């Protein structure tokens, strides 16, 4: 099997697995204690979580706190609903880019007046557009999950501030790969950086207040009640340490595979999204008349995606590809391949080779 779907999820790093196993082993003297208990075993588990919080936070700006959540969707909901509730009845618009993940997109609609920020055909959400006067929250992701384009989040943060609005950055696809700066709140997820599924985090700038969305035991500064898993937190921390240490190396590796993959998708294939202002571990391409469902069934040994992992299978046309001006037909003839740390040149050659062979025979 060849895995070329790194935007959907990433394989667990051995370092993260090792860190996790320590806390799953219940043999004598080991750590199954409740991290919120005041006794010795509890304090040991609590210390592992404190360390993980520091490790995860080391890739985020200074001057904020990391709140562990179950995943990034939960982090985004906490940020958006938590700040809206804290504001009370003031209402106001929530301005979101047209290419946000459903976690942001659907939540914006659920909590108020969703205002859509346009995205250019190259996949960029530029700041040369006005925010409604009553905008209370602006949400622009750093790297898009479908087309990989990088957004000017620092500028959006500045613009939000000028409009007295908060700025939430969904950094799920960029955290651990590049610097994440310029935001009031940042949502991240462990399983996109070779950590385990089931844990994410919300970084919140000091001074920003939000209402909890899960009440109960008052864990995570009272913002997210529930007993934390030391195993998941420790593994997230370990994955963050490796991501930090290997950032340059991982980046160079992604670039090398990008050059290889880009050359393979020549001739009849067109690139979706900007060529350069983009994470080069993501290639989203289309080919006129391509039957993607047939392609996927003919390449069962290659893991790749039609549109976004979330939208694929739903039968819906990708809202991201539509936002950059593609017709329904063009969007539906698009595929996404993605790679990262553990992808070899052979994986790319063989995986894309199989995709091309099947596409050419249609
Ligand atoms: N935001 C983006 C950009 C994503 O790619 C994803 C997952 O695909 C999410 C949010 C949701 O992350 P999680 O799976 O941790 O809920």
TrEMBL record:
InterPro entries reported in the protein's UniProt record: Aminotrans_V_dom (IPR000192), Cysteine_dSase (IPR016454), PyrdxlP-dep_Trfase (IPR015424), PyrdxlP-dep_Trfase_major (IPR015421), PyrdxlP-dep_Trfase_small (IPR015422)
Record-level Gene Ontology MF annotations: cysteine desulfurase activity; iron-sulfur cluster binding; metal ion binding
Domain Aminotransferase class V, first and last residues per copy: 2-350
Keywords per UniProt: Iron, Iron-sulfur, Metal-binding, Pyridoxal phosphate, Transferase
Entry keyword Nucleotide-binding: no
Cofactor: pyridoxal 5'-phosphate
Pfam families: Aminotran_5 (PF00266)
Record's catalysed reaction(s): (sulfur carrier)-H + L-cysteine = (sulfur carrier)-SH + L-alanine
Family according to the record: Belongs to the class-V pyridoxal-phosphate-dependent aminotransferase family. NifS/IscS subfamily.
PANTHER family: CYSTEINE DESULFURASE (PTHR11601:SF34), CYSTEINE DESULFURYLASE FAMILY MEMBER (PTHR11601)
Purpose of the protein: Catalyzes the removal of elemental sulfur atoms from cysteine to produce alanine. Seems to participate in the biosynthesis of the nitrogenase metalloclusters by providing the inorganic sulfur required for the Fe-S core formation.
Protein name as annotated: Cysteine desulfurase
Organism the protein comes from: Paraurantiacibacter namhicola
């Amino acid at each position: 099997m060849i895995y070329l779907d790194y935007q959907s999820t990433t394989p667990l790093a051995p370092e993260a697995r090792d860190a996790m196993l320590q806390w799953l082993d219940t043999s004598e003297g080991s750590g199954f204690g409740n991290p919120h208990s005041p006794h010795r075993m509890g304090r040991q588990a609590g210390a592992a979580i404190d360390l993980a919080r520091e490790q995860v936070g080391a890739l985020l700006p200074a001057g904020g706190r990391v709140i562990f959540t179950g995943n990034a969707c939960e982090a985004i909901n906490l940020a958006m609903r938590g700040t809206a509730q804290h504001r009370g009845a003031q209402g106001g618009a929530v301005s979101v880019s047209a290419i946000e993940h459903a976690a942001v997109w659907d939540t914006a609609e659920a909590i108020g007046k969703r205002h859509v920020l346009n995205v250019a055909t190259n996949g960029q959400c530029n700041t040369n557009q006005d925010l409604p006067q009553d905008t209370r929250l602006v949400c622009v992701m750093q790297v898009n999950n479908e087309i990989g384009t990088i957004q000017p989040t620092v500028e959006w943060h500045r613009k939000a501030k000028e409009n007295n609005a908060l700025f939430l950055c969904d950094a799920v696809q960029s955290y651990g790969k590049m610097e994440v700066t310029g935001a009031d709140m940042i949502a991240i997820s462990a399983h996109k950086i070779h950590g385990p599924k089931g844990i994410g985090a919300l970084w919140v700038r000091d001074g920003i207040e939000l209402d909890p969305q899960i009440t109960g035991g008052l864990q995570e500064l009272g913002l997210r009640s529930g007993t934390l898993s030391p195993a998941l937190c420790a593994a997230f921390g370990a994955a963050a340490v490796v991501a930090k240490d290997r950032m340059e190396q991982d980046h160079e590796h992604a670039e090398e595979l990008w050059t290889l993959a880009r050359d393979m998708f020549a001739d009849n294939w067109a690139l979706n999204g900007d060529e350069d202002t983009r994470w080069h571990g993501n290639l989203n391409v289309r080919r006129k008349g391509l039957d993607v469902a047939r392609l996927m069934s003919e390449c069962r040994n290659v893991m790749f995606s039609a549109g976004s992992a979330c939208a694929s299978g739903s039968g819906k046309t990708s809202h991201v590809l539509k936002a950059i001006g593609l017709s329904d037909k063009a969007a539906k003839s698009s595929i996404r391949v993605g790679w990262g740390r553990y992808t070899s040149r052979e994986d790319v050659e063989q995986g894309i080779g199989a995709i091309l062979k099947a596409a050419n025979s249609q």
